Amino acid sequence: MALLILVLGAAIRFTNLGSEGLWCDEGYTAFAVREPLPTLLSRLLTVDDAPPLYYLVEKAAVSFVGRSEAGLRLASALAGVLSIVVLLWSAFRFRTPVRSRPGLVDAKDPDPNDAGHADADRTNADQSRADLWSAATLAFLTTGVFHARQARSYSLLLLFAIAFVLAARSLLTGRGSRTRKGSSWVLAVSGILLCLTHNVGIVLVLVSLVLWPLGTREGTSFRRWSLLHLPALAVSAMWILGGSQLNVHSELNVWTEHYWESHSLALAPLYSMGLFVPGGIPSDDLAVGFSVPANLSRLWGGISVVCALACLASVVGGRTRAVGAHSRAVAARSHPTAVALRVELGLLLAPLVALTVVSLVVAPVYVLGRTDVLAYPAFALLMGRGLSRLPKWPAFGILLFWGGLSLLSIAPSYGYRDLGYAKGADRELAAQLGAELDSADWLVHTFMTSPSIEYYLERADVPHQTAWFPLVAAENTASDYPTPADSISSYVSQARRLRETIEAQLPETGDVWIFGLVAPTTEDDWGRVREAGVIDVGQLGYPVSVFLYQLVGMRSVPVAYAYRQDWVAGDRVVLRVPKQIWTPVDEIPDVRFEVR
User: Of 6, 150, 381, 585, whose CB has the highest number of CB atoms within 10 Å?
Assistant: First the structure.
């Protein structure tokens, strides 16, 4: 079964890895790893402020396999497979009976066949079976597969989180002092790697630190427990002392901001657990790329949630296949199985609550479908433990059902696309643009449009000129900033200067291509823009509308392309503005713009 889990898990992660186009954040990764190492580190310290490990791993990977879509995602796919391997290894290390392990029989109790050893063997067999099912859960469920097919850091973060959670569980159950001597090293090293991969890794380290009271008396001491967490805390402090990374999510991830405008942040832990369950949250309610087909009834999502609750009930209810003395031992609060359950529940709920509290009190760092990956290993462990306690055939049925829903959810990643929520729109758009761009034409990007578009134009060797509006959009090209009303005068000045720059270099027959969000908020309004094929300043989102106004005033301009930029950045247009239709500067009066 273990080999089958590994083979299928690897196949799901590697099949058609380059089928889907890059979205803007993956495009950002592609350009970041292209830079020389000193420039990359400087960017991470001054602009992105992300820890360096993922980008260093990614840079090493693409140096061997290239910067194709599949090449850029290879490191994440490998990390996804290694995550399965780590859980399978945990399952197999519990298989050896205690009585057959040299040096583990107490000298004062030389009988290797006593009841204590028999109970330990049975407990280990239960844990081995639970971890095997957890490996299958991780292999087939949506969240792990989704991140393994992204050229972003979350698959690597998940790998280190799994190692960290398993080590914490081992130490807190008391096994780390005897049969798990390496757990201390694993906990310390994986904690460091967590914090070097993503700043949010510190949340799991802090949660683990405060969960020490959940352990047994046979577990590690609090002094040693604290020392094992100290290196990760020190590493993390180097990157987030200024708090700037917290503000990255507050100011830049516009799709996250919009999601929490219509959802209660206080309920974020429930949303995440619904997201962890395949089909638990329908794709039309969630700004993330789980493109469940529109004709899939929500009934199936409800059934999926019921299956998860059944697994949780079988765990919390304490039902096992064991009988007699072992059942009574398992029910005891100090028994390793009971402790492991408490630790897993704590490592599922506490990170989600911590992210929510930080988001409510400090700054929004809760990025649904991303940063909550910290809690996903504990979810997989709990679901695996639940499946292991259910009868075999219902357990297999639930796993197959979840696997099927997961594949449907990320079908666009394999080439079956629902473009409303799929990636790849930018690849197709860049191909169309490349056929029409002249080397003297200018592309004026706004927030989140340039990384993937420019990646594909570069690979197709399409010469053109590039600019950004507003200028801040060039500082972190895969992100967004607020656009307050009092920024109008600044944006007007920037627009006029950019017009002067382009006008001095653009031939009379040249074009300016402008990327922008569409202001209408209803589907009918968006449909009318697409049908008319033209747009004016009042229909274009702020602040790009300011730049368009400085070129043509209130004149309508043709919409060259109308598209949805994947599942993160809404309805957009590309406007082709020939220099021949520009309005003279002295005929453009000052106007008040509506910020929307």
Answer: 381
Around 406, how many Cα atoms within 13 Å sit in the side-chain half-sphere? 23
CB 572 within 8 A of CB 515: yes
- With H, G, I as helix, E, B as strand and everything else as coil, classify residue 588: coil
pLDDT of residue 47: 74
d(CA 334, CA 341): 11
pLDDT score, position 108:
44
- The three-state secondary structure class of 575 is strand
- Terminal-residue alpha carbon distance, the chain: 55
Cis peptide before 51 (omega within 30 of 0): no
State the DSSP code for 540: B
- Per DSSP, 46 falls in state I
What are the pLDDT digits (tens) for 507-530? Answer: 999 999 999 888 755 566 667 777
At residue 593, the pLDDT reads 63
* Segments of the chain scoring below 50 in pLDDT: 101-112, 176-177, 242-243, 249-250, 252, 319-325
What whole-number distance in Å separates Cα of residue 471 and Cα of residue 379? 42
Report the predicted TM-score, pTM, of the whole model to 2 decimal places: 0.90
Adjacent-strand bridge partners of 563: 572
Nearest to 581 by CA among 557, 564, 565, 559: 557
Omega of the bond leading into 282 within 30 degrees of 0 (cis): no
Nearest to 23 by CA among 288, 310, 392, 385: 288
